[in-house]
Structures are given as C-alpha cells and as structure tokens.
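Risk register update: the risk that structure generation would not scale has been downgraded. Supporting records follow, first protein first.
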Amino acid sequence: MSSELGIRVFHNTSENHCDFDSSLIITLVPPYILVISVLGIIFNVYVLMVFCLHKKACNVAEIYLSNLAGADLVLVCCLPFWAEYARKRYDWPFSESLCKVSSAVIYMNAFCSIYFLVLVSIDRYVALVHPLSHERIRRPFYAKLGCLFVWGLGLVFALPIFIYRKLEFNSQSNLTGCELDFNEHQYVAYEVITIIFSFIIPIIIISFCTVRIFQSLSNRLMEGLNTKKMEQKATTLILAVLLAFLICWVPFHVTKILDVLRYTRILKCNITRTIVQQVSVYFAFFNSVLNPILYVIAGKNFRRRAKELSKQWNNKTTETFSLMSTRMTTLRLTKSQAAL
C-alpha cells in the first residue's frame, strides 16, 4: 500500500506506482501538518476577524481576500485527520464519512483558493487597466456573487471525490486505506480535467492580468502619472499573494501532470519524481499559512484595519470595565446606606 499522503488526498493510488522507502515521510509529515494546521487556523481566524468585525465594510479586493482566508481556514482544519492517518502508517482510524468529507473539503478549498485569486487578479486588472469604463462592475454586490459562484463551482468539482472516496481494507498489509475507487481510465480523465480547470485556465488568466497590470503601472510611471495610493497598496498585496501562490502550488501541479503522463505510460516510473511530488504537496499546504503573513507584511490597508479594530476593542473593553466599576461602586454605596 502506498504511503503517499498527497496522492491519497488528491487522487487514487494504483498498482502503477513507484515504491520507495517512506519511513522518513511518515516520521516528518504528521508534526509538519499539525504545525501547518495550528498556525493556519490562528492566522486565518485573525484575518477573518479583521475583515469581518471591522466597522468599515470590505471593498471588492478585501471580499475576495476574506473568502480566500475562509478557504484556507477550512482546508487547514481538515489536515489533522490526514496527519493522524500518516502517523498510523496510512491506516485510516476514522469513519468512512469523515474519509469522504475531509478529502472532498480539502480538494474543494484548494480549488476555490485559486479561483478567488483569479477574481482578485481580474479586479486589479480592471482597476488599473480599465479604471473608468469598468467601474460599475467593481461593486461589492458583484464581488459577493462571484464568490458564491466560486464556492458552488468548487463544490461541483469536489463531488466525485466525495462519491468515490471510500475505505478499502488491504489484507496483505492489514491496513484500511481511505482511497478513491477509480480505475486507471477514470483517474486519468479526472486528473486531466482537474489540471485544465484548476491550473492551466487559472494560470493563463492570472498571467494575462499580471502582465497587463505591470504594463499599466510602468506606462503610468513613464508618463509621470500617479496611481491612487489605495490602488497601489492593494496591488502590492495582491501581487505578493499571487507570487506566493505560484511558488507554492505550481510545483504540485507540474508533478501532477508528470504523474498523469506516468499513468498513461508516456513517462517511466522515477523515484526522484515521486519524492518531489510528495514534497510539493506538503509545500503547497504551507500557502494557507503564508497568505495571512503576507497580509500583515505587504498589506498596509490590512494593518490599518487591524490597528483600528484593536483600538475599537480596547475602547469597548475600557467602557465595559468602567461600567462594571461604576455599578460595583453604586452597589457598595447602596449597601452602606442600607447598613446605616
């Protein structure tokens, strides 16, 4: 039985795989995933609190980023189950329902994350390249509709994972695996569709928007025109998040393409490529922790929101303590008067 956590999360294992000593992966993966989960939960909850609890409504870019934080949060909440799975040497200790739900949720939120970045890229493109002619579509209402569409699309693409994922007992190893019940042709067809819709199409859109954004900013600098500071700040943050996504997820998708070519026997089994595939999966999960850090480092508007929210809470806390102190003082005076 394969010990490849990434493959188990995202696709089926079969007889056509490369066997290698996975003891090091089994040792390192559980603590690594748990650290990613804890940090991802703390950081993304903080981001959602800043975006959602601030008295000022979110703009279009912030709506997309808050949904991205939500997708990252749900993803990292499901990872501890797979950390335990790896710790038990890939003997699934939970129910079949949890096997289905956790793997489908991981897939769904990984899919949604890239399309929230696509929406973010389109928003920056419209804001900087077509600031006047497309101002009407850059409204929070349309941004929320776009987010609902992405969540729905992610749910549709995760349905096969939920339907075909099941527990399979291996009598030779005496282990129960959480596996996708795909034959080889189904697996190849599903992975090709996934690669097209979750990698190739989004990368084309993001690359086009990013190139046009850089061209627009360069032209404005050459012409001596100043972009609005708010747009510059938002664009800096978006580009940082996009770069982090590409660094974390492109290796994963490239190895998936190579894996499909191996299953179709275009490429031969290669142990090095298999190990790189494992590393790329775990590196991709780190993106859910990296995004909130980038909001703080590159997001001046986010830091401003966080400071204002902190002041807002401090004021409320001060008012609460003041009110409690006043009530306690009044109560003491009342008791003193009653005693007299």
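Supporting record for the second protein:
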Amino acid sequence: MSDAEGSSAGREIWIEKYRPQTLDEVHGQGDIVDRLQSYIERDDLPHLLFSGPAGVGKTTCATAIAREVYADDWRGNFLELNASDQRGIDVVRDRIKNFARSSFGGFDYRIIFLDEADSLTSDAQSALRRTMEQFADNTRFILSCNYSSRIIDPIQSRCAVFRFSPLSDDAIGAQVRQIADAEDIDTTEDGLDAIVYAAGGDMRRAINTLQAAATTGDVVDEEAVYTVTGTARPEEIESMVEAAIEGNFPRARSTLETLLVDSGMAGGDVIDQLHRSAWDFDLDDRRTVQLMERLGEADYRITEGANERVQLEAMLAALALEE
C-alpha cells in the first residue's frame, strides 16, 4: 500500500480495503476454495452457482476467480450485475447478450457475474437459461444467491453448485485480529468475542463492527461493540428467558422493555438472538424445545405484520405459563 493510500485509511471502508484479492486470501471456506482453484488450474471453469447467507465470501470468490483467470485484464472480461436492481427480462436480453456477443482477444471465455440472482423474475430466469446455452462456448456465468431453491431447476442443473456456510467463529476472529493489528487498534479479548458473537457468521458485519467500534474510543472492548451494534449481551437474553420460565413474568417483561426501548433493538433482532443462543442457555431439552416452538410462532406473526412487542410479550407469557 502506498503512503497516499495509508494516509486516507481512516476514511476508507474496511470491508473493501481488506476484501481478499485472491482465493488463497478467502477465510473460512477452505473446501470451496480448493475446488475453485482446481477448476482454474485445469482451465476447466463451468458455470457456477454460489448460494449462502450474506457476508460469507460469494462475491469475493467471484471477483477472485476473474483476477486469477485474467490477471490485469480482469475488468474488461468480467461483467458484474446486481439482479435485485435489474430484475427483468430486458437485462438478460440486452446487457448480458451484448457482453457475451462482444469480441475479445486472448481468452477462451468471459465471465458474467449475476449477484442476487434469486431476485430475477421467472421470465428472466427462463431467458437466462437460453442465453447460457446459446453462449456456452465463450461465456461462463457465476450466479450468486441467498436461496438456491429460488433458482429454477434448468439453471441449477447447468451449474456447479457451491453452498457457502456461515463463517466459523475462528475464521472471523482471525480476520478481525489481523485487521486490528494492521490498523493499530487496541482490542480486548472480550471485545473480540463480542464482535464474533454480533457477526453471527457474517464477515462483513464483523469488519464493519470493528471499524465502527474503533471510532468510539481508544480501546475496542465489549461495551463499545454492543453499543455500536445495538446487540444485547447473551446474558441479558438468557436472563429474560430464565425469568419467564421461572414464572417471573414481570421481570422478563421488564428486561424485554429495556431491550426494545433503552437499547433500541427491533423485535426481529431479539428473536434472532434468542434463536442463535437457545441451545447455549442452561435449560433442559424440554424447555429449550418449548422456547423454539414459541419463537417460531412469534417470528411468523411478526413477519406477517403483527405488533412486535405484543408478540414477544405473548411468547414470554406462554413460557411463564408452561408447567
């Protein structure tokens, strides 16, 4: 990195500054990286379908493939489109076909990367299927999505499918430590653990949390992390559930009120944290199953438009009434 780049480090977005440039630099997806590298080494790249949650390396792997295949010429041979912004059939007919048809030199094929491909309409996906057949000789498609079930079967059958899992705590912790060292940020172990917990397997969220927390004081500690993320401490969530199960509904409701009002958490965030932490609570299996059942009901009703506070209080009340 040049001195000029270094002087503006504080104004840079770290998720882009520290985005891996090669497949070797991708954290936490070892098996997928090995398979992708074998395709590149054999010069036998098929159409690819990447599916998985946000922030786990799908887009990074796509651009890393282009860099390794085309080196310095990668930008001219790699078309990236966000299908959630451009969802219609015209995108497939116009932009994708024009790029696939255009002349190029020195390479056997060009790469078209469709991010959030599960947002494409059914008609657009059908047109894409035909385009994949028509330009199979000189174009490779990489499709990225959160849910592969929303991609029509004829497209899935034409692709090598890679299912990206949420990143492990170790992978996120290692990357966060590396960035903290590079940026000369003081962190505590509790702070790092809080970043990993708040990230929930999402590397982007972890890096953004580190950058935000680094602006709040001299040291990135647990307090700074939970403040910038609006995340509740696991012990607060556990205390609320335990109070409800013990039949102390007023105390459970008071804790919920603190999370929703004082901490400013959304009801969906409370449910997400409850779901992630349910099996870590000191509860017997029967109680945990009851909690999961009530969580599912509350989550569905909130998704359908019900009042968050009413549903969460009803969930705690139901737990308090269980024998």
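Residues 1-9 have pLDDT under 50 and may be disordered. On this basis the risk owner (M.S.) recommends closing the item.
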